[in-house]
Amino acid sequence: MSGLSKDFVRAALGAAAGPDGRPLGERLEWVATCDGYASVKLDAEDVTAKGDLDALARRVHGAVRAAAGEKGIALASLIVELVDKAGTVKLGSTTGPRPGEDINAKLAEDGQATSGEQAASPPPSQPRSPQEQASALPGVRHVIAVGAGKGGVGKSTVSVNLAVALARRGHAVGLMDGDIYGPSLPTMLALDAMDLNVHERMIEPFFTHGIRAITIGKMVDPEKPLIWRGPMAHGAFKQLTEQTNWGELDYLIIDLPPGTGDVPLTMAQSLQLSGAVIVCTPQKVAQDDAVRAARMFQQLGIDILGVVENMSEFIGDDGKRYDIFGKGGAERMAQRLGLPFLGDVPINTSLRTNSDSGDPSANFVAKTAGGDALPAALEKLAQNLESQVSLASMRQGKTKPKLTIS
Ligand code: ADP
């Protein structure tokens, strides 16, 4: 029996009519599948009323689930996003397995399990997640993905500064620019003048600002548009993680592309993670996207280590605080979702100029960071992340709690 594939999803939607009679296949813009998990994006530019969007999403879920049921194909989770012309999500929804469906047995039957043992080990009521099949990266203790619901919220800025902050706290840290659609590390770490070295088919990471870093930006012509699609994105991501000579690392931070897509699926399936950090600005629209990113990580079986609120407020030269985007919005969202809050990063001109000049270390010195607020905020983020990683390791059974009696 063949398993869940992109072609299967395309065929299921192609054959079905939407609430307005238009075939769903005509609206399909993007599809990704991975071991019983499917994610689709459909054009809903012409659909505006909430009720109509709901009806369209229901039809999409119904069509894929019905076809899967008919063909006996395991569908652990389906993520449906209805988008406008600009790609902004108007409605996102997720459905799980059918009640009573033994998803593990079906995945094994579909030949989607990597080994019989893995498929048989979890209790039948729990669907296997892509993360459960992933393997550890040799020599790397903790892999942390940094994601965001949308671009421009400061995901790369937070990734770089978290990596440098952890290194300044004495850890061996690697940073991978997994944002293969728009790599930022060449600029943020001033890698432009450095040459990439490859030894015996292994890529040597750059060593700069106390961290080891690698970016797809050094492997492609920066003038050419990055049209990495499905399989190419998959291959590029795997090559960057597996063929980089990371050495021994305490933390490997991965800067993911924004949104939900092929790269997080590939990562979840191939790399065992300690968890993910979600970067969000305080506005309501950014939070809505962050909630979707949180759902995606959870669906992939990835622990969420916490939420970072970026651009939370502006502190002027006069020391006065200006609330521009509505400080605290991301923290309240984290509370609502029951997720840890790691801290906030103020809007800071030095942070931007230090990023543009490729000097993140300057963010940790009051003189070059526009005062004490930025270094303190970054230090607190790193500390909170360390604690959350330790807690996640205990939850995942990687370390035992230490009992200290004093
Ligand atoms: P993303 O990775 O989410 O697309 P970036 O990290 O590339 O976003 O940030 C987008 C722009 O915003 C960059 O120019 C960056 O320097 C700037 N930026 C990010 N966070 C802040 C902040 N807290 N204060 C000032 N500028 C910021």
Description of the structure:
The protein is α/β, with parallel strands linked by helices. It folds into two domains: 6-126, GMP Synthetase, Chain A, domain 3 (2-Layer Sandwich), CATH 3.30.300; 133-395, 3-Layer(aba) Sandwich (Rossmann fold), CATH 3.40.50.300. The protein contains 14 helices and 15 strands. Strands 5, 6, 9, 10, 11, 12, 13, 14 and 15 form a nine-stranded mixed beta sheet that branches. Strands 1-2-3-4 form a four-stranded mixed beta sheet, with helices on both faces. The longest helix is centred in the last third of the chain and has 23 residues, at 373-395. The radius of gyration is 22 Å and the shape is globular. The N and C termini lie far apart (60 Å). Adenosine-5'-diphosphate is lined by residues 148, 151-157, 184, 310-311, 345, 347-348, 351-352, 355.
Please summarize what this structure is:
The protein is an alpha/beta fold and 406 residues long.
Amino- and carboxy-terminal Cα gap:
60 Å
Query: According to CATH, what is the topology of the largest domain?
Result: Rossmann fold
pLDDT averaged residue by residue: 83
Residue share in helices?
25-40%
Please describe the topology of this protein.
Elements: H1 6-14, H2 24-27, E1 28-34, E2 37-43, H3 50-71, E3 77-83, E4 89-95, H4 103-109, H5 116-120, H6 130-133, E5 140-148, H7 155-168, E6 173-177, H8 185-188, E7 197-199, E8 202-204, E9 206-208, E10 211-215, H9 230-242, E11 249-255, H10 262-270, E12 275-280, H11 284-299, E13 304-315, E14 321-322, H12 329-337, E15 341-347, H13 349-356, H14 373-395
Parallel strand pairs: 2-3, 5-11, 5-12, 6-10, 6-11, 12-13, 13-15
Antiparallel strand pairs: 1-2, 3-4, 7-8, 9-10, 13-14
Helix pairs in contact: 7-14, 9-10
